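$ run holo --ligand "zinc ion" --emit tokens
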Amino acid sequence: MSPGADPLARLEGGCLCGALRYRLACDAVLCVYCCHCRDCQRLSSSAFSVSLVLPAAAFMLLQGDPKSIARRADSGREVRGFFCGDCGTRLFDRVIGQPEIMVVKAATLDDTAWLRPVAQFWTGRKQAWVTLPQDQLVDARQPDNFAEVIALYRARHGGSDAGS
Ligand SMILES: [Zn+2]
Ligand SMILES: [Zn+2]
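-- output --
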């Protein structure tokens, strides 16, 4: 990592107003991906969202009490999204039926410069002007589970230089 960067800023994040704060356990990130689905476009008010997947046990809410809303994702999966009731920032999703993982909206981290996505999901819905990277896993929809993306992320960013 670059000299002077604050290691905690890579692991801590929160909502826009500061009511909600969280911390990720060290080296817990399983993978980082971008999602171009319509829900992510609407929720982020942007072309795509950047998400990171980690074991649910590696996520600690430090402060605040998020509100949540259930929705049916484009995949058909039922997802519960958690957000700040004061400022509306979306912080993380839980997939119903997959309680062991957590999908954190990576833009809420204090330091986002280290994020290196390895996959692009729902590219069938992407904005026409978005150019996809050549070296990432691309799926017009999304895989049934994260196994392949996690293996790719581990191959590229895992091992001794992960997170430090
Ligand atoms: Zn807030
Ligand atoms: Zn999405």
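-- notes --
The domain at 11-157 is CATH 3.90.1590.10 (glutathione-dependent formaldehyde- activating enzyme (gfa)).
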